[in-house]
Amino acid sequence: MKLILPAWISLLSYSFCLSQIFPPKNYPKGYFRNPLGVPIRLAANFGELRANHFHMGLDIRTEKKENLPVYAAADGYVVRVKVEPGGFGQAIYINHPNGYTTLYAHLNAFFPALAAFVEEQQYKKETWKITLDIPAGKFPVRKGDFIALSGNTGGSQGPHLHFEIRRTSDDINLNPLLFGLPVTDHTSPVISRLALYDATQSPYEQSPRIFPVKKSPAGFSLAEGTLVSPSPRVSFAIGASDTQSGSRNPNGIYEADISDNGKPVIGFQMDRISYDNTRNVNAHIDYKTKATGGPDLQQLFLLPGYTQSIYKPVSGNGEIDISDGQPHHIRIEVRDPYGNRSRLEYRVSYGGIPAGTVMPPGKIFYPGILDAIETEDLSFYIGEKCLYDSVHINFSRSAALLPGVVSMLYSVGEPYIPLGDYFLVRIKPSADLAPEKMDRVVMQRITGEKTEVQKVEWQGGWASARFRDFGRFQLILDEDPPVITAEGFSDGANLAKASRIVIQVKDNLDSYRNFRAELDGRWIRFTNDKELAFIYKFDRHCPTGQHVLKISVEDEAGNRATRSFQFTR
Questions:
Q1: Of the options 1.10.150, 2.160.20, 2.40.50, 2.70.50, the CATH number for the domain spanning 190-350
Q2: Burial of 405 (0-12, 13-18, 19+ CB in 10 A)
Q3: How far is 103 from 91, CA to CA, in rounded Å?
Q4: Which residues of 499-526 are buried (b: 16+ CB within 10 A; e: fewer)?
Q5: Of 84, 154, 251, 301, which residue is 20 to 30 A from 532 by alpha carbon distance?
Q6: Where are the alpha helices (DSSP H) in 365-455?
Q7: pLDDT digits (tens, 9 = 90+) for 68-109
């Protein structure tokens, strides 16, 4: 005899089963304090979607101000500092005795003793951009100690504090909202759209059907009744966001899972992500839809080339078999770290009329396999870690028209196919080059209005370089050195009333490196925040009197420029 359970027991069993996809977290609560002296208001949370990376911490608002005091979140010691033009800008890392590391980024200034140490090391190593590993006992801190002033340095788009918590043992980033920080959150996530995919095809070779989602008394629902798919196997993605109490700023979601007729299929969770794997955000979102101007869609299926993923499959990789022709009850649940949740329920069935598929042009490449295309003037090699899913990759060539180009222009792949690792491009120039000319050749990649160049390596008359995106590629003979200009003063100026010197560097291919400044023959520290300008603020290294400032810079092709300025201070 078949036992029929009451509906409430089935629902309880279903909810319990879903909750076990990811076990409860047991991070220490109350150990870390708010790193600021103002209430925590989030501009971004952990796992939020970014271009080519997950957001790896919390962006805490600083009331649209800079130079707010930043405090140590717990007892420990400064283990590392970083100064760079992009990324974190100025950052402090603190190790704590409980096995965690906190990071504080986009800072304007370190506390005085640390700032003096960093400056000393910059002058010793003759570099402003620097990463310093610091002995454990040199800068101990207590919980609540002043360690820095907040700012807007590096890759920041506005004043805020970027705050991270990592496991010290393996440098894995953890979600700070799981540590009991004082963040008030009684709001549930919002599900805004649903995308339906043909699971028999690569997501890079189809366009999903996107359905708007509306709020309903029971949670979220679709305007349509039962979705009908021409494919017997389907998968789904969602557009969703989250907020905190008192905030309208849409942040990322923490966790989502999907079930088919009450059986859990797969889920993902923004809990533990390594910087080694942060680029895999491109395997989590529908990259093609986003790259072609569509919305952010977070996939509820796992691509075969996505290793070390945020997903936990329960039955398969997220693909749902609807070939039985019966309506399948699909349930998607989205949660935040505080237990607030939202649900979307709908039905999907197989229409029984398979849609005709058109085989894309090009050779098919597979994740996990090294493969290549080689021709008489172009070769490219796609490694085991490059692709997230099987996809056809095509190429073409056309005449290059710009001055200085010494090859054909080659189009390789599509910009909406993401790469998890660098692939190798080899191009044979269209004419023989003298050795001194070969030394000034770079390879340029073009995607839309964006360009990048790499110095090439030569082997057997072929120029090679590695890139992390598809696009159009060509060889350029670059013999134009960068241009150095002084902003606001000229050679021989009296700068007694000035507070700083600003130097601008421009390059014909927007690629320069190895900037060096010397004052009276000795290295002098110029900053280069956000790579906008090189700035020296007058200090004890430039006493009163007459001085000679020498600036030298090199571009990617190796062309060097030097310019000297005399001034009185």
A1: 2.70.50
A2: middle
A3: 7
A4: eebbbebebbbebbeebebebeeebbbb
A5: 251
A6: 435-438
A7: 999 999 999 999 999 999 999 999 999 999 999 999 999 999
Buried/exposed 362-387: b ≥16 CB within 10 Å, e otherwise: beebebeeebebeeeebbbbbbebbb
Could you name the CATH architecture of 42-179?
Answer: Distorted Sandwich (2.70)
Tokens 């890139």 appear where? 467
Distance between CA atoms of residues 315 and 324, nearest Å: 17
- pLDDT-based confidence at 358, cuts 50/70/90? confident
* Domain definitions of the chain by residue range: 42-179, 190-350, 363-477, 483-568
DSSP class per residue in 233-268: EEEEEEEEEB--TT----B--SEEEEEETTEEEEEE
Task: Report the 10 Å Cβ neighbour count for 249.
Answer: 15
Question: What's the CA gap between 430 and 408, in Å, rounded?
Answer: 7
Q: Any idea which residue has 């965690």 for tokens? A: 100
The answer, yes or no, to whether residue 481 has pLDDT greater than 80, is yes
CATH class of 483-568: mainly beta
Residue 5: the pLDDT is 38
Helix/strand/coil for 284: helix
Query: Is residue 560 over pLDDT 70?
Result: yes
Whole-prediction pTM: 0.94
pLDDT band for 20, please (50, 70, 90 cuts).
Answer: low
Give the tens place of pLDDT for each residue, 208-237.
Answer: 999 999 998 878 999 888 999 999 999 999
- Long-range Cβ pairs for the range 364-367 (8 Å, 24+): 364/390, 364/391, 364/392, 364/393, 365/390, 365/391, 365/392, 365/393, 366/390, 367/303, 367/304, 367/305
Place of tokens 């409860």: 24
Residues 6+ apart with CB under 8 A from 8: none
Task: Tell me the C-alpha distance between 393 and 413, whole Å.
Answer: 5
- Check residue 149 and give its pLDDT: 98
Q: Is the pLDDT of residue 9 over 90?
A: no
The CATH code of domain 363-477 reads: 2.60.220.30
